[in-house]
Design a protein that fits this description.
Length: 664
Amino acid sequence: MIKQFAIATTCVAALCSPARAQFTATPQTYSPSELGVTASALSGTALGTALDNFDARVPAMAHPRLFKGQADYAGIVAATKAERSTSITALTGYLKRNPVANTSAALRANINAADSAVRMSTWWQQTRILEGMAEAAVAWYITRDPWFLNEMRARMTLFTPAVLARKCSGDVAETRDYVWFYGLAYDFAYAGMSASDRQAVKNILLSCGNAGLLKVADTVRLYSENGIAFNALGKFVGALLIVRGDMPEMNSWLRNALPTYVAGVSPWGGDDGGFANGSTYAEWDAGESLIMWDLVERVLGVPFYRKPWLTEFARFIAYALPPGTPAGVFGDGAEVNRKEDWARFGKAIMNRSDTTLSRWYSKQQSGEDYARLHILLSPRESTASAVLPATQPSGAYFPVIGWSIMHSALTDRLRTSVFFKSSPFGSVNHSHADQNSFVLYAKGTVLAMDSGVYDYYNSPHWRSYYKQTRAHNAITVDGGQGQGLGPTGLGERAAAGRLTRFEQTPAYDISSGDASAAYSGLLSKAKRTVIFIRPSTLVTVDQLASTVARRYEYNLHTPVPLSGTAAAFRAANAPAELCGAVASPDALAISSSQGYYPAPTTPAGPHYWNKFSFSNPRTSGLIVSVLRTDCLSAKPDIVFGSSGATITAGGRVITVSDLDVTVQ
C-alpha cells in the first residue's frame, strides 16, 4: 500500500491560516519504526537469511518462480482468461504472425557475427526476438498449445550456438538480455522443456555471467548512476532467482549481486518517490524492472515493494504524467507525447500499488499495447473504489529530486499544469542544465515547452543545444551562457539546484528554487519563485545577482510564435492560448528565433525561442513574468519600487522584497 506523502509543516503566524500549509523541504513520509522494519527486512543480512530459507524449503519452490511456484499467482492467469483475454489473444497472434522462421538472412548473419558493433547495429530487432522467446514460453504456459513451445525452442536455437561460441563476449546490453529472456523462458516453459533445453539455458547463464555480468555489481557499487549497469544487474538477479536451486553452480553469484541491487533500486530518487532523470526514463527504467522486482519479493518473501521509494513512485507518476498530459516532464525524451508508453507502463506500475490514486490513474489510461509481459503478468486489478476523494491535492512536492508540480485540478484532463524544477541531481546523465526552469501545459497542449529533440545521447544537437540551459524556460546571461555541464559536457552533479519552499493552498501554490550553485560562478544569486494561482495564472519572480555586471536573459520557449510586446504578448495553440507579460525595472530587449541550431538528426516539431534580455549589464536583476492560460482573465499589473515589486494577477496581490515573496 502506498501512503499519502505526509510533509512536515511549519507556520509563521502572520502567514498561516487553516487553509494554508507551508511545507518544509524535509518530508517525513514514514515513521522511524516503519523505516526500520523495511530496512532491516531488506538488509544484506536479511537477504542472506532469505536465501538460506529458500534453499532449505521442502519441497523446493516449483516453477514459475514468478508465481511463487503456483499455477496462478493472485489471479494473474485467471485474469488472462477473463478480463485480459484480449491481451493473450494479442500476444499469441503477434507470435504466430511473426514466427522466428521469418527472420531474414541478413539478421541471422548479424546474430552470428563475431563483431559486437555489427551485432549492435540490429540489436533492437534481436532483443525483440529474444523477448518473443519469453513471450512464447508464457503463451505456452497459459494455453498449453505446443506451437508456442516449439517457437520458443526455435528462438533459442537461433541464438544459442553463436552466443556460446564467442563465450558471450560483447556489449552488456547483449549479455543482460540473453540471461534475462533465457531465464524467463525457462521459468514458464520449465514443465515442457527437454533436458537439452534446460542445459542450453544453464550454458547461456554460465557463459554470460563469466563474460562480464559477474562484475556489474561492482560497477554499480562504484558508479551508482550507471543506468546501463544497474539494468544489467537487475536482469542478472532476476535470472538467478529463477534458476536458484536448479543450477547450484551460480548460487554464490546471487549472494554477491542481490544486496547491491536491492540497496540501490533507484539511484535517481529517494523516499518521496521521485525520479530525477525525468518522466520518460522514470517509466522506461521502472517498466523494464517490474518483473525483476516481482521476483525479489515473491521468491524470497521479502517486502521489496515496501521500500520507501517504491511505495511513493506510483504517486510521482500520477502527478508527473497525469491523464491527458500532452508531453513528458524534464530530461531526455520529455518533449514527446508517449501516450502508449504512459498507458502501458502506467497501468503496469499502478497495478502493483493498491491505493485509490493508483486505481484511479489506471482506469484513466487507454491505448496501451496490452500484449507486453510487464502488463500481462501484472497483479490482478483491484475492484475497490477508484474515485479520488475531494481532499486529494492538485499539487505535489518531491524535494529529494527538487520538483514541484501544480495542477489546476488533477482530475481534469483539460487542466492547466505547471512543473518546476530545481534539482540536487544537477545535470548528470539524462538530466539537463535546467535548474529553476518550468514548463506549462493547458487543455492538453504545450504552451511553454522544454525545447529540443532527443535524437540520440551525446549527439551534436543534444550536446550543443538540447542539454543546455538556453533550451529551457530558465535564466541565462550574456548571450545564452547558462549552467554547468562539467568538463566533459555530459553534465555534473555539482551544477545543482534545490527547492527552498513549497506552500500549497486550494487557491494557489508557491514554490521557490535556488540555482546559484548551478551557474558555476556566473551568478552569485539565482532565486526563482513561481506562484500558480488556480485555475490559470502563473507568476514567476527571478531575483539575480553577479559580482560582474551581466545582461540577464529570461528564456521562454513556445511551439507557436508570440505576437505583441513584452508587456502584453499572446500565443495561440488551439484549443489553448497563452497571454503574458515579462517586465523588469531595467529595460528589456526582445528577440525571437525559429527552429534549432544545430539541428537534430530526427524530425522536430515547431519551436520559437523567445528571449527577454537586459539592454544594459547590471550586477543585480529582477525579472517578473505573468503567464495566463485564460486570455479573457484580467490583465496583470506590475509595479516596481525601490526594494522590489507589487504584482496584481489572478485576483491576488504578490509582494516582492529582497527577503521574501508573499501572496495576499
